[in-house]
Amino acid sequence: MSFRKTVITVLQFIGLFVVYLGLDFLRGRLIPMSREISSAMPSSAAEQMPISIFLYTLFVVLVIMYAIKNSHWHGLKLIGAMILVTTGFQTFMEQIDTVVFMKAFPLLTPIELTKIIIGEVLVMALFVTAAVFILGKWKNRNNEIKKQEPLRNKSWFWKIPVLAFIYMFLYFLFGMFPITFPEVKNFYTPQTADLNFIILFTVAYIRGILWVLLSLPVLYMMRGKRTETYTVLVLLIAMIPALGLLIPGPLMPDMPRLAHFIEIVLSNGLFGICIVAMIAKKPPVNSDEPA
């Protein structure tokens, strides 16, 4: 990368960093949490908040920048795909778990959960739109040719239920890690002791299918290099859902929050690798890109 391109990339990053912070600030003002939740914020969490928000914003901006820059899509198509993927990964997929374990969050009412979902979707939709413009991906300036079909011909359909089982296995395997800590176990019990395991397994399986379906736009929009596809999908599917756990708050104590961060990064990261390996088409034999 030339010096000029490096300077431009740095300036783009700074601009997007400021945009995201501004949008997040406005969300807090326009869609505030209830007084009960705000007053429950521990003093230690308030002290950690500035550095936590800085790290969270840093990683979110870097991940989304990398995905957009390495996409061969542009304009509204790219904006729509990135909004679907980021809000799907960050908000809807993770809030399914919140609903299942709702009893562990007595302060979180359905109204407050709805406000969280609306706020996250609005921030991410506006940020992604701004990022596409700032990164110069509104128009096809590089005359990029259409990429070949990115998925294995027909054979990938039957792999979706298989991948759902893999996700369910990873979900419960890595889900055992947080409950090895007494603080985490005490946080969830006895409030969630009456959860039906059949419901848990069913929800996990459905989530596995949804993760795969939400990953398809990523496979289609990448330039075709397999290493970039692996990198972008793993970053989006692992980091976007987990990064919010870097920010302390009144709903979840530090130990459960950090334990879940590690759990999601590892389990979703491995699952992202499985998705690309099983349903993304390998490059041609004469391609310079390693399989």
Summarize this entry quickly.
This protein is mostly helical and 291 residues long.
Question: Helicity level, as a percent range?
Answer: 55-70%
Tally of separate helices: 10
Low-confidence stretches: none
Structural class determined from secondary elements: mainly alpha
Please write the string of helix (H) and strand (E) elements. Answer: HHHHHHHHHH
SS elements, strand count: 0
Ends distance: 25 Å
Q: Average pLDDT, to the nearest integer? A: 88
Number of domains: 1
Main beta-sheet strand count, sense and barrel state: none
| Alpha-carbon Rg, integer | 20 Å
Strand composition percent:
under 5%
Global geometry:
globular
Would you kindly provide a written description of the structure presented here, covering whatever features stand out?
By secondary structure, the protein is an all-alpha fold. The chain has one domain (3-279). 70% of the residues lie in helices and 0% in strands. The protein is built from ten helices and no strands. The longest helix is centred in the first third of the chain and has 28 residues, at 3-30. The radius of gyration is 20 Å and the shape is globular. The two termini are 25 Å apart. The mean pLDDT is 88.
